[in-house]
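Reviewers of the previous submission asked for a worked example of the structure-prediction workflow described in the proposal, so we include one complete record here. The input consisted solely of the amino acid sequence. No template or homolog information was supplied to the procedure at any stage.
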Amino acid sequence: MLRVQLWSYNYDPEPQGIAPLSAMLAGELQRRGHDVLVVAAHPHYPEPHWGFRLKPYRERRDGVSVMRLPLWIGRDSGLQRMRQEFSFAAAQSTVAPLLPPCDAIIAVTPCFPALLPAMVTAKVRRIPWLIWLQDIVTDGAVTTGLLDESSLGLRLARQAEVIAHSSAARTIAVSDAFRGNLVAKGIPAERIERIFNPSSRHTDAPNDLAALAAEPPQILVMGNIGHSQGLEHIVDAFEGSEALRALDATLTIAGGGVAAGAVRERITSDAVRMPGVLYGSELEPVLRSASLGLVSQRADVAEFNLPSKLMNYMAYGIPVLASVRIGSETGRIVEESGCGWVTDAAHPEQFAETAARVLQDREALVRAGAAGFAFAREHFHPSSVAARFEQVLQQVIGPPAAAVRNGSTGA
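From that input alone, the workflow returned the following structure tokens.
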């Protein structure tokens, strides 16, 4: 049994982004017999739906012990987002000396400032720590306009990025693109493990695409609605397509984020629906009725994350249409798995043309859905991902620590 602390800014019951992934990993590690403590912020994303708390508190979620920390919530500006993240790092620094002993810390980024207290705590306690890299925060800050490419703040952030990854016993990168990004910045390749994210929703029964053939086709986009997805152009292309209109196709954009208002303003017909953030079971019927799952990323931005919606589409056997930069990790996975089709995000009209074509080819949809489902079972199932994490944890903790836990000193 390993004693693991997962330091994750976001956690269940937040419905999208990193929170479901952290909850899935924590639950699977616990089910494998390990003692898991999650250190998380009070729920706040993608909207402050849960109010606020002034003091730390403990709770159990699905059998996992969670220490919740107070947060100065605010996301309406770059300054507010930075203040929010630094408030979490400050709360972590305060409670870290009071946390129980553990064998290793897994620190999820973002939140980027929270890597510092994890690094210091691991050094003081003489235990290994791992970074679970969900976003390349420095690249994301440039993409979203939070930091300018030539700014002192970005240079300092990138120096801190290298220091953090150099200090960690391992960095868990969720894509090969992330791994290459870090190697290019001077992080030794042998200290980086590529482990795909788990599907945060999974099922033993994939979508029955043949049965959906009798219904008007539905294209689904779910999760964060940010600037990097370029969904405004997707809406324009969808509504401008006579072929999709002839199919009576609909586009559902389920989620929330900083660009949701701008996307909503582009809608001119009832064929595009934005139900907002769907919590828990509310998302299930939307997933089950999807003929095609869309992953979109702007062509003119750095690839600083791997959208978790991709894993969830594939876990449900939903064929994928990716409107992304050519050569991106998302596109590579779609092509390698055979789960769907890749179009150039620099030309959003390609999305609409391809969608109209494949939605009329039910055999191709069924083949793509089956291929994605099989790939997800092998690479994205939570039990498989947890097993990979367990292997890495045992490597960095080492036999001496395991011997002490088992009551043997080796003498």
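The first helix runs from residue 18 to 31. We consider this example representative of the routine output the project will generate in years two and three.
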